[in-house]
């Protein structure tokens, strides 16, 4: 299952206004605003979603085209580890070894790889 997707935008405030209006009829709202102190990068990311789960992210913390990101939810941490190893063996580039990302939340266990085109692909387990 896809956990979330994110990409870079050229003008965060313009995109914020656009997505607030465009996604409202779908019941999708702005749920989180994450500044550089939490993203560990410059800029800001906005998380839109439903039911307290942000699953659509935009941000000005990367150049447009470089911020493409997709995350897949998995049931356990072992699967995150297996994903990371398999992706590296298939030619991916390490973009964050398996581990806790407490700056997101205490049980955020994830691994990140760049695919052959530089897309940031993540597997994440939200359980302990």
TrEMBL record:
InterPro entries named among the record's database cross-references: Glyas_Bleomycin-R_OHBP_Dase, Glyas_Fos-R_dOase_dom, VOC_core
Annotated Pfam families: Glyoxalase (PF00903)
Entries under PROSITE patterns matching the protein: VOC
Domain of life of the organism encoding this protein: Bacteria
Gene3D superfamilies according to UniProt: 2,3-Dihydroxybiphenyl 1,2-Dioxygenase, domain 1 (3.10.180.10)
Annotated VOC domain residues: 1-126
UniProt name for this protein: VOC domain-containing protein
Organism: Sphingomonas sanxanigenens DSM 19645 = NX02
